[in-house]
Amino acid sequence: MITYLREKLDKKDISCLELTDIYLKRIKEKNKKLNCFITICDEYAKIQAKQAQKRIDKNVSDILTGIPVSIKDNIMTKDIKTTCASKMLKDFLPTFNATVTEQIENDGAVILGKNNMDEFAMGNTSQNSYFGGVKNPYDLNRVPGGSSGGGAASVSSDLCVGALGSDTGGSVRQPASFCGVTAIKPTYGTISRHGLIAFSSSLDQIGVISKSAEDCAILLNSISGHDPKDMTSVKRTKSNFMSLIGEDISKYKVGICDEFFDIISDDEVKKAVYDSIKFYEKHGAKLVNVDLPSMSYGVSAYYLISSAEAASNLSRYDGIKYGIRIDDNNDYKEMLCDSRNNGLGEEVKRRILLGNYALSENNYSNYYEKALKIRSKIISEYDEIFTKCDFLITPTATTTAPLISKENSDPQNAYLSDICTVSVNLAGLPAINTTCGYNKNGLPIGMSIIGTHYDEAKIINAAYCFEKEFGRKEPLI
Amino acid sequence: MITVDDTKKYCRLSSLKYTDDELYTLTDQMNKIIAVMDKVLDFDENINAYTQKTIDYSSLRDDDMLISPPTDELLKNSEKTHENRFVVPKII
User: Are strands B85-86 and B81-82 parallel, antiparallel or unpaired?
Assistant: First the structure.
């Protein structure tokens, strides 16, 4: 899509402003139903489009110049509200741009708006938002996944060409699976997190969502690279994520890990992913059986580590340094509790409580320390796996998009449904989701291609080759 | 299993406040969540995960010592200063 639009813009078949207007008009029409944007940057997008047009007219455009994108509302955008979908930050205007915002703007992309999400990225349905839940474009009665559900729904419905999201435990891959689009979470440290509002610092990573692996590679090329402002940003030569696109896949060894399939009760999901594995076999790739014995501990380890880190990271929302202040009692402790109670949603509060439970003196060694050991074990098991294969193919989610209902909102069940994605974050690995089928109701099914550290180009090519043969069904909305 | 009093303690640690009725519901929810987390208790401690190969630290940046920026330059960022220090506005 990006290369197609690039050609149209460079040939002046369409101007940047015309293209931006088309997308803004679509957003205004469809966002009423989908609720995938919290802020629409109408005026700002038009200013950026005019600047992009000047670059094209002077023949100094980059590949993203004039391309309409959206940004998750936990990534800082200077002078544009960045709410994290929380009442706590509902009026927060950042005074600086996140590094990724800066990078994508420098390449000339047009920012159409800020995407809705689960509050502070805590959730996998995009229903935990102060601004109301996001709907799935394939079925408005279903969740779009989360926490980057707004980004996935907006890409799926053609409300933007690409979206920047964040992925702490599957938050770009799982919504991409539910909304029938492509999304990649790169290796931890590949993209600067400076300006990403912290949830769980050892797991958070910015990712991209678009309609194809090729577009994901283009967006990654724009936003990756070392950033001295982020101490976890890895100092290494900037990769070209397009470098392996079109490479012969017959030389690849594809890992199949039964632990991922044994937990899937939805036969349609299982069949679609197995069928996609056959695609690689048909093209000459060798299939290899591998094991991830500690996978069953992944969800608990992930939630203990991420909640412990969240409890610390979110202590800054005290009504003084950040966030709304409820100051009825003229007492510091009362003000602190009232502000947090009033400003934070129920799921966020549950995670903070779980984090403090895990970190408390009596539970530290039984829960938090054990979770760290499990994390190390999972890393070593993945290391072993990648001595035997180039990448793994797994389901991205255990089901297709579930219905929006109270029964589906029990926290413990929601946590368990993250089992296919969280181990990737615990190990800091790159993984890409692409659509590999549709169930009998027409809902998309996603598969994940998981690679070893810094092997994004290979998994992007694996997804690209699959997408070339697989036909995508457009959503109803 | 945690009790309502335990939940009260964790709420205090988290700077959160609930009514007594809310605390009962929350305790019930927390117990269901902790039951999921209890899976980690089954993990075999005898596997020394820390000694196994984990991450390649050679790709991390060097631990260089850098010269701090001049104090005057930093103080320019503050609205008010006193004896080479930032003056933080009174909040409460």
Answer: antiparallel
Q: Which residues, numbered 407 to 426 in chain A, qualify as contacts with chain B under a Cβ-Cβ cut-off of 8 Å?
A: 410-412, 415-416
Name A191's bridge partners. Answer: A224
d(C-alpha A184, C-alpha A389), whole Å? 20
Complex prediction ipTM: 0.88
Q: A6 CB contacts (<8 Å, ≥6 apart)? A: A61, A63, A67
Task: Give the span between the Cα atoms of A424 and B58, in whole angstroms.
Answer: 21
Residues from chain A contacting residue B61 (CB–CB below 8 Å): 226, 234-235
Is A220 within 8 Å of A143 (Cβ atoms)? no
Say how far apart CA B42 and CA A253 lie, in whole Å. Answer: 33
Cα A243 from chain centroid (whole Å): 23
| Distance from C-alpha of B87 to C-alpha of B51, rounded to nearest angstrom | 48
Output the six-digit token pair for A255: 């890992």
Q: Which two tokens stand for residue A256?
A: 């199949």
- Antiparallel, parallel or unpaired: β A206-210 and A162-166: antiparallel
Give yes or no for a cis peptide into A300 (omega within 30° of 0). Answer: no
B11 contacts A236? CB cut-off 8 A: no
Min Cα separation B66/chain A (Å): 13
Whole-angstrom CA distances from A29 to A20, A37, A243 are 14, 12, 38
**Cα–Cα distance between A43 and A32 in angstroms, integer?**
19
How far apart are alpha carbons A197 and A313 in whole angstroms? 9
- Which runs of E-coded beta strand occur in A79-153? 110-115
Establish how many alpha carbons lie within 13 A of residue B37's alpha carbon, considering only the half-sphere containing its beta carbon: 28
Q: Are A99 and A194 in contact (CB under 8 A)?
A: yes
Helices (H) and strands (E) in chain B, counts: 3, 2
Chain A interface includes B54 (CB < 8 A) = yes
Q: Contact at 8 Å (CB) between A210 and A216?
A: yes
C-beta of residue A2 within 8 angstroms of C-beta of residue A110: no
CA B45 to chain centroid, in Å, comes to 25
What single-letter amino acid sits at A224? S
Q: What is the pLDDT along chain A (477 residues), one digit of tens a residue?
A: 999 999 999 999 999 999 999 999 999 999 999 999 999 999 999 999 999 999 999 999 999 999 999 999 999 999 999 999 999 999 999 999 999 999 999 999 999 999 999 999 999 999 999 999 999 999 999 999 999 999 999 999 999 999 999 999 999 999 999 999 999 999 999 999 999 999 999 999 999 999 999 999 999 999 999 999 999 999 988 889 999 999 999 999 999 999 999 999 899 999 999 999 999 999 999 999 999 999 999 999 999 999 999 999 999 999 888 889 988 877 888 999 999 999 999 999 999 999 999 999 889 989 999 999 999 999 999 999 999 999 999 999 999 999 998 766 788 888 888 999 999 999 999 999 999 999 999 999 999 999 999 999 999 999 999 999 987 788 877
